[in-house]
Amino acid sequence: MPVVDVDPDALRGLTGHTDKTDEEFKEDLFGLGLEFEGETDDGELQFEFAPDRLDRLSVEGVARSLRYHYGDDRGVYVPEVNDAEWTIEVAESVPDERPYVTGAVVRGVDLDEAALESLIQLQEKLHATMGRGRAKGAIGIHDLAMVKGAPLREGAERSITYRGIEPDGETFVPLDSNDELTPAEVLEEHDTGRTYADLVSEYDRYPAIYDELGLFSFPPVINGKRTEVDTDSRELLVELTGTDQWTIDKMCTIVCYALSARGATIEEVEVAYADGATHPAEYGPELVRPNLEIDEKSVSHDRIETLLGVDFEPEDVVDCFERSGLDATYSLDESVTYEVEVPPYRVDVLHPLDLVDDVGRAHGFDELEPRYPDVGTVGGRHERTRLEDAVRTSLVGLGFEDLLNFHMTSGVENYDRMRIEPGTDVVGGGEPVEITEPYSEEYTQLRTWALPSLLLLLEGNTHNAYPQDVAEIGFVAERDETENTNVGESRHVAGAVARRDASYEAAKGRLQAVCDDFGATLETPRTDHPTFIDGRTASVVVDGEPVGVIGEVHPEVLVDHDLEVPVAAFEFDLGALR
Amino acid sequence: MRLPERQLAVLEAASATDERTTDEIAVETGLKPETVTGAAFDLRDEGLLAVTETTTEVAELTDEGSDYVADGLPETRLYRAAVDAGAADEAVAMGEVIGRADLAGPEVDIALANFPRKGFGTIDSGELTVDPNADPDADPEAAALETLADGGSVDDGSVLDRLASRGLVDLAERTTRAVRLTDAGVDALMEGVEAAETVGQVTPDLLASGEWEDVEFAEYNVEADAPAVEGGRKHVLRRTADRVKDVLVGMGFQEMEGPHADSDFWINDCLFMPQDHPARTHWDRFALDVDPMEEIPETLIDRVETAHRDGWGEDGDGYHSPWSEDFAREVALRGHTTSLSMRYLSGYAGAELEPPQRYFSVEKVYRNDTLDPTHLLEFFQIEGWVMAEDLSVRDLMGTFEEFYRQFGITDIRFKPHYNPYTEPSFELFGDHPETGEEIEIGNSGIFREEVTGPLGVDCDVMAWGLALERLAMLTTGAEDIRDLHGTLADIDFLRNAEVSY
């Protein structure tokens, strides 16, 4: 879950509630779903929240939510925007993998250290969330005074260009460096470059942003040093590139709202596509950004009432909308429907239902009285788990300790230590379902049988008293192309008798008792299985079907599991007792 | 008169004129002392014997005391070493004497403290002088230790107290019992007492022959511990699961069943989880190296893709995330059992469902989490949902209050939350029934229309999930989940975990 660092002094300033204590803020923010997590080294408060309201990733966004919460603000707010002076030209050479760009110009900026830090934090948090680690969207913020744009096109005064270049096609001095490097060199030699190298290293051409003086930004990896922002910067150029236009536009909007809250003025930029350049399908060949358009959705009064289980007056609903930073109008027809305006920084409103949630939060979910739904249904257990339970009861009655083992295991445990091999026609010898890119050598596949788990447990309990009679009814799986999932899943019944006098007879007596419980006919014709001692191994045949194996476990298996007592065991398919 | 054999033996060994201790009688009769004592009390209750009890203080050597009997008391060893070193004539450096006496560790302090106390000499400025007139051989403490070691008794209470305070003897109280025949006992013996036959065990013969009517059954020490019996028992987590299932069936829920290995379509896409959601990266899921799932209803795939790309309903927006059918068909271990809910709600698991319905499962899910005392790679998820017309948040709250009340968790709090698949969503918090601390006990919400719509459900569905292990840790007090679940489990822990019901 995202975490936002909040400077409480900045919060007091931005909300205008200069008398609020840190504790009061913590309480108020908890009500908004931001949970206090702790303090940073320099005394900022950290809050964790669910990843829906990403507009709250900065102290400015948190302050805005609080002002609505306190009733200081109501309804939709959209900052004033001045007309464009700058153009972002999109060249044909832009890499196909990262075709989209957006941006804004911000003027009248006055950033102290704290505000600058907050801006950088917002940028990083947006990268981590919406930007999917900069892959989907990356933000570059530049000191506009250091950008030199000549008019490249009639109608635009100044411009920069988004293009694709050869990995070694140009040099620039990246941030945190003094060396002239090519983009390819940045990926190899620069710390930040190495961190993000995977995002672009497969590209034929690298993304690059140029002004009249040359390359000044290498998105999504690093900006050039020339345009670095500091507390003296008064005018900013914000550019974003990515794989999805909507995502970078929303990230841009959230950054613009944050800077606007600090008193800056937002100015549009035009995005113009050269012939052959990719422009986003949902828009024409020319964009004006940032996109601060208000979205509209309609939701019926009836839906709000049924979903929250509360009767409302329409004015109350409108009040809730306005306190949530939304605007709503309605007509008093037979059925009331609200036309709701949603401000552009909201990235979580995908459906009218999301507006009902806002009404619920504004009204206060705490206010709702729980009620047990007046709906009659008949309950019952699934046949499979009932059978499992009945067999478990039989085994426990015979003195077996019921076990619960992991379904994931390794080939070593499942086959090697049991002296069997995958793809052989013995119980447990099925082809393994393996985990792609396993994280641990201990868990690389699903178990094909349960007996290895029982032996592992016995191995871990040699310090405890004997007898140890253990059993498990559990999930096993093997490759099976006849299944839709390509995985054959079943439940096996496995039991092991570990004690000084454990013998084939001891195991068979218990197996016979289980079969008798279920009216099943048991036969045990002799068979071979590498896990068991030759001549003391039988196939478990239930009602004429071979369904498992029983025998005395081979000394090599016992010794390998550090066992100093004999073990007799059986394993068969649960379905045989159906 | 007939008496059990051992009572008769005690009665015959007792005297009308002299008191005899039970120990003496035990030696004479060959019975165990406790048997004699038991029989004596039985005879007293019959009025045949008088029993008198005397309590005496007995002293027993401790291990340290025994060591000193063998080696000599540290102060005595110090004295002798000092004499050898010539300290009777002039002061000798203490270190030299200690070395010569072969004292080590705490013995040094013991020797130095007791040496002057017993008048063996003086210690001054690190030098030691002995009193040539002292006589360690006459030391009453050493003598008392010797006596006790030889099995004798020491009467000097002050010496014993001193030895006890030095930790060389343990003082304990011992009760001796002595018996004497009463007049009635004498009369009984005069009239003749016969031994009743005692038997150890009820046997088939005894019962069949009717002999049981004439025998006495040998008495047992019924307070003694019996040899341990290990019965089998159901796994503690299974029992918790059973309890959950009982409660849910009682509330009208039907149990679901379905595959552990499933396509991402059923696990995530149906749930309106965007394909680039962090939980769907390979870091969080266990992908399996099998071929993709071929059979998924085409119309369902189309509708789910539409929901992801364009949203659902007139005013719906999609996710602005990539969506690929190939990814949807990949097979992985389910990260939640909501995949079962999707299969049932769509009608794919069986019949098309008409509202109202309630369904649940308590089944295993797989997540690539860090293994620690509260997290496993595999755990059980309790999953439940209610499908009905016009369900409200209040119905959701009422249902969960009822469910958790069954486990002693009352006063649950609903904290508004965000899930990609439910809106509104709530995290559920309650108070730990033992510690009272606030804990998260579940996640819940009403399925979004982007979830229910593509599945063909046109009423409301509310759902919730909870890790069974969390509930089990609450109800069993287990602190490390690895004690319970998996091959690292301790069989003793499983055998001794308190039964919950």
Automatic annotation (TrEMBL), chain A:
GO terms for cellular component: phenylalanine-tRNA ligase complex. SUPFAM superfamilies: Class II aaRS and biotin synthetases, Putative DNA-binding domain. It catalyses: tRNA(Phe) + L-phenylalanine + ATP = L-phenylalanyl-tRNA(Phe) + AMP + diphosphate + H(+). Residues 292-370 form the B5 domain. It is found in: Cytoplasm. Its cofactor is Mg(2+). Keywords: Aminoacyl-tRNA synthetase, ATP-binding, Cytoplasm, Ligase, Magnesium, Metal-binding, Nucleotide-binding, Protein biosynthesis. Pfam families: B5, tRNA_synthFbeta. InterPro entries: aa-tRNA-synth_II/BPL/LPL, B3/B4_tRNA-bd, DNA-bd_dom_put_sf, Phe-tRNA-ligase_IIc_bsu, Phe-tRNA-synth_IIc_bsu_arc_euk, Phe-tRNA_synthase-like_B3/B4, Phe_tRNA_ligase_beta2_arc, PheRS_beta_core. CDD domains: PheRS_beta_core. Its EC number is 6.1.1.20. GO terms for molecular function: ATP binding; magnesium ion binding; phenylalanine-tRNA ligase activity; RNA binding. Its main location: cytoplasm. Mg(2+) binds at D348, D354, D357, D358. One of its GO terms (biological process) is phenylalanyl-tRNA aminoacylation. Tetramer of two alpha and two beta subunits. Belongs to the phenylalanyl-tRNA synthetase beta subunit family. Type 2 subfamily. This is Phenylalanine--tRNA ligase beta subunit.
Automatic annotation (TrEMBL), chain B:
Its cofactor is Mg(2+). GO terms for cellular component: cytoplasm. PROSITE patterns: AA_TRNA_LIGASE_II. Residues 244-489 form the Aminoacyl-transfer RNA synthetases class-II family profile domain. Binds 2 magnesium ions per tetramer. Mg(2+) binds at E423. It catalyses: tRNA(Phe) + L-phenylalanine + ATP = L-phenylalanyl-tRNA(Phe) + AMP + diphosphate + H(+). Keywords: Aminoacyl-tRNA synthetase, ATP-binding, Cytoplasm, Ligase, Magnesium, Metal-binding, Nucleotide-binding, Protein biosynthesis. The keyword Aminoacyl-tRNA synthetase applies. Belongs to the class-II aminoacyl-tRNA synthetase family. Phe-tRNA synthetase alpha subunit type 2 subfamily. This is Phenylalanine--tRNA ligase alpha subunit. It comes from Halorubrum aquaticum.
